[in-house]
Design goal:
heterodimer, A: 279 residues, alpha/beta, 9 strands, B: 102 residues, mainly beta, 4-stranded mixed sheet, 4-stranded antiparallel sheet, globular
Chain lengths: 279, 102
């Protein structure tokens, strides 16, 4: 798989805003940024209210995903270009989620909203209304999604990659530094996990580092590429970003995202936890 | 403030007498040649230069982080230019820092 199969540049995006069969979608946890200005023609997807089940802690199910995409005017054969704020975390999560439900024609806008803005490209406040589409999803592909028992069983057997910041990994902080540090969970990390913060895979403008740089990074960090890998963070969106780097850019065959992540693991009774900086 | 998600919340001005409730708050404003610069991407880097968080400054240039005691760098990226500043937080409370971009 080449980089062009999974990423588009902001330049490509600007040149293809009106291309038939290409749909831009902005994905965020907080959609006020979209409301203040978005890429012209882009629909918005609310990570919290549209991609998560409102009651259980889980995804929307297959029928829910089908209804969502139909309502957004996205057909199964459309090429969907996802982008968002927070260095594309939520867009990467949506990418992983689209792949999970079998939507193969999906790419990320490299650098997301940040790169688009830093480039000084146009943002629009026009309301976007696409005609309803009909959409059929596939059964979820759990070969890219890890669940808690599998994560506990992976200790000492598979690669675990903790993509949070060094201070969250060590237990000094319980959440990213832009959030208040209140939390009920235990701090620390899963024993044997490598700490390769997601930010090391991105340039400061939000674009992904080159595939060669990514390979070097994980080699230096000691990732055994002959083994399956599970990535986790706090709630599963930063680890989607790393899942993208490992599975889609480097092309490792067996990489799963553990979307339960630290908010689940750090609250489980009786599982092993380590604290302290990486060795 | 909701702690359900992981995304950076909308930023607003931090009053100088903010009750930080025991937290280490690093906050300030991004300015340029003509006053406040809105919408810059502000990154918090720890003493080793490791990324710890990023927010988008408000329309008035305000940003705020919840950190821990230590030395920090705040770095702002904007289409008009970049800039950075250092701040040392001895302990809980409000630690103010200004960043100018050019």
């Amino acid at each position: 798989m080449s980089r062009e199969d999974v990423l588009v540049t902001t330049q490509w995006a600007e040149e293809n805003l009106n291309t038939p069969g290409v749909v831009f979608a902005e994905v965020d946890e907080d959609t006020t940024a979209y409301d203040g200005g978005h890429i012209r023609g882009a629909v918005k997807i609310d990570w919290k209210t549209e991609l998560q089940d409102p009651v259980r802690r889980d995804f929307v199910d297959k029928a829910g995903f089908e209804a969502l995409l139909a309502e957004k005017g996205i057909a199964a054969d459309d090429l969907v270009i996802l982008y968002g704020g927070n260095n594309n975390w939520f867009a990467a999560y949506a990418y992983w989620y689209f792949k999970l439900y079998g939507h193969d024609k999906v790419k990320l806008l490299d650098g997301g909203r940040k790169k688009w803005e830093l480039d000084g490209r146009e943002l629009s406040t026009d309301e976007v209304k696409r005609e309803r589409a009909s959409y059929t999803a596939k059964e979820p592909d759990t070969s890219i999604r890890a669940f808690r028992d599998e994560v506990v069983a992976a200790i000492g057997n598979k690669n675990l990659v903790d993509v949070r910041s060094p201070d969250e990994f060590s237990g000094k902080l319980l959440a990213p530094a832009h959030l208040p540090q209140e939390s009920a969970q235990r701090a620390g990390h899963i024993p044997t996990a490598l700490n390769v913060p997601w930010a090391k895979t991105a340039n400061e403008d939000g674009t992904f580092k080159s595939t060669e740089e990514l390979k070097e990074l994980y080699a230096e960090e000691g990732l055994d590429t002959s083994k399956p890998t599970i990535a986790y963070c706090r709630i599963g969106e930063r680890s989607s970003h790393t899942w993208f780097a490992l599975h889609e850019l480097i092309g490792l065959p067996d990489v799963k995202n553990y979307d339960g992540s630290w908010t689940e693991y750090g609250s489980l009774v009786g599982v092993p936890i380590e604290t302290g900086a990486k060795k | 403030m909701s702690n359900d998600g992981c995304g950076a919340p909308a930023q607003s001005a931090t009053p100088a007498d903010l009750d930080t409730q025991g937290q280490v708050v690093v906050a300030g404003k991004v300015t340029g040649g003509d006053g406040p610069v809105g919408g810059a991407y502000v990154r918090l880097l720890n003493g080793d230069g490791e990324f710890a968080g990023e927010v988008q400054a408000s329309a008035e240039g305000d940003f705020r982080f919840y950190a821990a005691p230590g030395s920090w760098t705040v770095r702002a990226l904007h289409k008009s230019g970049n800039g950075e500043a250092s701040v040392t937080a001895e302990g809980p409370g409000l630690h103010q820092v200004a960043i100018s971009v050019a």
